[in-house]
Design brief:
The structure is a homodimer. By secondary structure, chain A is α/β, with parallel strands linked by helices. Helix content of chain A is 62%, strand content 10%.
Chain lengths: 374, 374
């Protein structure tokens, strides 16, 4: 029983160390909150990539020097840093002189922007379904009208807007860009910009989130809006509306539709999900999560995204045709064809496939950390 | 510039805190290594779910009490605990009296088992391609013959084995179970067991990994093998070979094949991957990673897994048929059909879909932590 007592003793010491860890993280969080305050006073952006990279690199070197895994300290610090960003999100008041109208501000994404603008000191008005009789009053004096309504009605809502002040910025946050941008340019002679926030409304902050910008007209007049978005921590990417929409055929339509049919197939094959989970490696569990999570979300939203660009169906038909051909080859036992196609795609992915394998391995390890209990 | 100096000062303090963090994690790792040693002396398993759960819960409560996010401390500790398990993997000598032959021991998965058995003190011999002339000598006196060869040749390799000692355990690690298990039962009158390690050969340890067990014959004679696997930290799940293979139609064939065709489609559509990545939200980046990573791996292995069960092609044809029907509905603009099917699948997933959404959200946040620099 001596070793058993030794084990208990060691566990007590580990618990004490973990207690110190909590204290240390608390101290760090307080310091980070202070940093956030000072940055706001200085008007500096929340997210400074170089500072973060250097901070991580210094700690990696220290860890390596003492024989601790550099990946461990980096993973831990990244997780801690995320928490800091969330802490630092508190009001950065810099839009006190702006009057902003969010059309569809009662929706999930609209609410996020309302909150952000309000926390920055702007006067924010909402123009939602029931407010249209007062629309002209609501937009009077607006510096920005941001349209955040379902994709299927976006062009009509834009067309129905009352006349806007000449210097007012008209912007939208729809997940396609060509049609809404054109509708906005047709509607309004002043500054116009299309935005596509590439994240779901469950996101609490913009820190490190991606937002696509498709320029319309008069960029100098909406530069303040883009600067606010960067200040909130987002990562802006400029894309032509047409290039954006083409890529979305794959990033949204191809993905949502194949995930949807995957789910339909599992349901119709009456697959026992509990059994599937018991048999799942972390990677398959992740795959199943990616399918299942779709069905906890808004069916209308997915229907609208898929139906918004009918020209994508021809591309999906080509996918089906390829699937059909490949199954035919496999049914004929043509392993050589499979290996040939595999090599073709491996060449197409090039270095990306190895990078993806390494990155996903790292992520699956993180997923594996939580696998047992949740 | 006063605030600028204050910012520098705060950053210096944060760096000092992070330096302390490295020291603390180093101390913890040393304690955990001690725990590993004592556990080995006591012959106790590496992974004790209750101890881990209690440790996490205590820290969560401490964090909540001082106003720190309980999720933060849990994520950090889980990452730290993973490192501890890897540290604790050093030799646990308990198989000194076993003679083990790994057929295909030069392959990636075979090597992992060779390493594990050797670290546990067993005498391990390898029977690989060039060793067949000496096969009878190699298996003489074996307590375990573990077959780890490509799925396509597994039944033949088993049939070609020399006669084994009567009390020798015959086991395999193939990713289907019915055919190999039957081949082993036909070959050998002694104890027989089928194993399916549900992880890739890149895995360094068995800690928290899933291994499926399909019992063949004489469980009391291979109980020692299962106990070793648990001692190494793996999670064993018992499944009938037929139920296992049915589930694998979805977990492997459906998944690998649809991922494969997804890759073929992207390549043939000449999609610009760099542009796709620039436009990717964390969740789509993850999806693209899951597709691309396949093509950094062994084409033969995937071909063999897909071709090993030709009866699955009918199931895949049903999937294609469903896809075709749904595209037809969408082409006809039948949103109501989409919404109806969506509701059907949402009902099928039930609580799982919400759980998956929450779990994946948590994981995507972890992925997002690393998004900017890698």
């Amino acid at each position: 029983m001596d070793e058993q007592r030794q084990l208990e003793q060691l566990r007590t010491e580990i618990d004490a160390t973990d207690g110190e860890l909590v204290e240390l993280l608390l101290r760090r969080r307080r310091l980070a909150a202070e940093v956030g305050k000072v940055k706001r006073q200085l008007g500096q952006p929340l997210y400074v990539p170089d500072r973060e990279a250097k901070m991580l690199e210094d700690r990696r070197q220290q860890a390596a020097a003492v024989g601790l895994s550099p990946d461990l300290i980096e993973d831990v610090l990244r997780r801690v840093i995320r928490e800091s960003y969330q802490q630092q999100q508190a009001a950065d008041v810099h839009l006190q002189d702006k009057n902003i109208v969010v059309v569809g501000g009662a929706g999930a994404l609209g609410q996020l922007f309302v909150r952000l603008f309000e926390s920055a000191g702007a006067s924010v008005a909402i123009l939602d379904k029931d407010d249209w009789p007062r629309a002209a009053d609501i937009v009077a004096g607006a510096d920005l009208v941001l349209v955040s309504v379902p994709i299927a009605i976006t062009p009509q809502v834009i067309a129905d807007l009352p006349e806007l002040p000449a210097r007012c910025v008209l912007a939208d946050v729809t997940s396609i860009k060509q049609t809404p941008l054109q509708a906005m340019l047709d509607k309004h002679q002043g500054p116009v910009v299309g935005l596509h926030p590439m994240f779901g409304p469950q996101q609490q902050t913009l820190a490190k989130q991606l937002i696509v910008v498709s320029h319309g007209r008069g960029q100098e007049h909406y530069q303040w809006l883009l600067e606010s978005i960067v200040r909130w921590g987002a990562n802006l990417q400029e894309f032509e509306a047409s290039a954006h929409d083409q890529a979305m055929a794959f990033i949204q339509v191809m993905r949502h539709l194949s995930t949807f049919v995957y789910g339909v197939h599992l349901a119709r094959e009456r697959v026992d999900l509990q059994q599937l989970l018991e048999l799942s490696s972390p990677i398959y569990r992740l795959e199943l999560m990616m399918v299942g999570r779709l069905f906890a979300q808004n069916a209308e939203l997915y229907a609208d995204i898929i139906l918004s660009q009918p020209q994508n169906f021809a591309m999906m038909r080509r996918y089906l045709q390829r699937f059909d051909t490949i199954i035919g080859e496999l049914e004929a036992g043509d392993k050589a064809a499979f290996l040939r196609e595999f090599a073709e795609v491996a060449a197409y992915f090039g270095q990306f496939s190895t990078d993806f394998l390494n990155d996903s391995q790292r992520l699956l390890s993180l997923a594996g950390d939580t696998h047992q209990i949740r």
